[in-house]
Amino acid sequence: MNKYSVKAFGTAAPEADLKPMNIERREVTAKDVEIDILYCGVCHSDLHTARNEWGGTVYPNVPGHEIVGRITKVGSEVTKFQVGDLAGVGCMVDSCRECESCKEGLEQYCENGNVQTYNGHEKYLNQQTFGGYSERVVVDQDFVLKIPENLDLAATAPLLCAGITTYSPLRHWNVGPGKKVGIVGIGGLGHMGVKIAKAMGAYVVVITTSTGKVEDAKRLGADEVILSSNEEQMRANAGTLHFILDCVSAQHNINAYLSLLKRDGSLTLVGAPEHPLPVAPFSLIPTRRSFAGSMIGGIAETQEMLNFCGQHNITSDIELIRMQDINNAYERLLKGDVKYRFVIDMASLKNEVNPSE
Ligand code: NAP
Ligand code: ZN
Ligand code: ZN
Q: Which ligand does the CA of 119 lie closest to?
């Protein structure tokens, strides 16, 4: 398999900073496209993985799964894209395509394991997959998304993970007019959840730990905001929500949030903290509540979400950073100090002096 070297930013160990490095990409095969990466969002999963908080990180690790750019090369059998097209890549770059989940368009739940955009297995080069903190990426056309032309490109990058991860469970649990929906944790995922749930026609209640986000949440589309540290507000809203999307990245008392659900309501976890979250049986039993989970979304649903965002003019609220600012951005992410998604301008990486040169 022919391969070539590209510049990237990655980390060599859980406690190490991210730094410039070279990685290898395969040359396009018949069904692959090559994408010149223009912007890449910074997801909290990048940080969890770079620091091995979920275990299983293979080093060096190059994160990044909110990728947008332009197609620079197409393989001989590529039919969906042409050189010059805008394109996006999210959290997956392949799956078995044969199992029940894959056949249903739920590649994220591939029973043989989907191939993640980073820290997955690159079968052609027999190495780990490397993500979007890099100049270029080579991906099978079936895992590449079309980007609506009317949206700001940098602010569209976060839709590839934060957008689909919130859109998919909101659709699955039939959020729409007449439903009162809580969104917990107004970071990258949560702020997209607010915008998308609102566009679906729901009554949206934000539940935040940050006093500084109370007013802003209304600008994002929230009808009401609850400060979770305010016990009186929490008590006053007990038993009022049909559905809650929990987008929190750190330890939190899940029972406090479950108490906000109506009878038969469900709380779906998309946030993935490092440690277990103890659920009290009586947070669920007396009101027949459900506690559920959801992972990103399938490729067809990701395209549906992008088209939905195109139609409703929905993008992420972003702070554009240079690749060289990534370590500081991770520290700020941990403090909830971003409104609401860092996006890396990849021109900054292209200007970086390659370490081997
Ligand atoms: P983020 O931008 O850092 O946002 C997390 C938000 O959680 C913060 O802004 C904060 O919101 C809230 N929060 C933080 N610490 C908290 C605490 N101790 N108690 C209560 N709330 C707290 O992260 P993100 O990129 O949106 O990702 C969120 C989580 O989803 C991460 O764990 C990530 O790995 C996971 N994720 C899962 C999937 C999936 O497929 N399921 C996909 C992508 C990401 P407030 O300031 O409003 O309280
Ligand atoms: Zn992500
Ligand atoms: Zn499969």
A: 2
Q: Which one of the ligands is nearest to 51 CA?
A: 1
Amino acid 354: pLDDT: 63
**Does ligand 1 have an atom closer than 6 angstroms to the CB of 290?**
no
Tokens of 24: 């290898």
CB 108 within 8 A of CB 165: no
- CB 182 within 8 Å of CB 257: yes
Residue range 194-224, pLDDT digits in tens = 999 999 999 999 999 999 999 999 999 999 9
Q: Does domain 163-293 sit in CATH 3.30.70.240?
A: no
Task: Name the residue of 165, 196, 248 whose CB sits within 8 Å of the most ligand 1 atoms, as the mutation to test its pocket.
Answer: 248
Report how far residue 118's alpha carbon sits from residue 162's, in angstroms, rounded to the nearest whole number.
Answer: 16
H or E stretch covering 139: strand 136-140
Q: How far apart are CA 37 and CA 39, in angstroms?
A: 6
Q: Write down the CATH number for the domain with range 3-161+316-350.
A: 3.90.180.10
Kindly report the protein residue whose alpha carbon is nearest to atom 23 of ligand 1: 44
226, 247, 317: residue to mutate for ligand 1 pocket, most atoms within 8 A of CB: 247
Which residue in the block uniquely carries the two structure tokens 């939905």? 308
CA 103–ligand 3 middle distance (angstroms): 7
What is the C-alpha separation between 241 and 338, in angstroms, rounded?
Answer: 27
Which two three-digit tokens encode residue 223?
């009808």
User: What is the location of CATH 3.40.50.720 in the chain?
Assistant: 163-293
Q: How remote is the CA of residue 211 from the centroid of ligand 2, in Å? A: 25
Please write the tens of the pLDDT for every residue from 108-135.
999 999 999 999 999 999 999 999 999 9
Per-residue b or e along 125-157, where b marks 16 or more CB atoms closer than 10 Å to that residue's CB: beebbbbbbbbbbbbbbebbbebbeebebbbbb
Q: Where in the chain is the domain with CATH 3.90.180.10?
A: 3-161+316-350
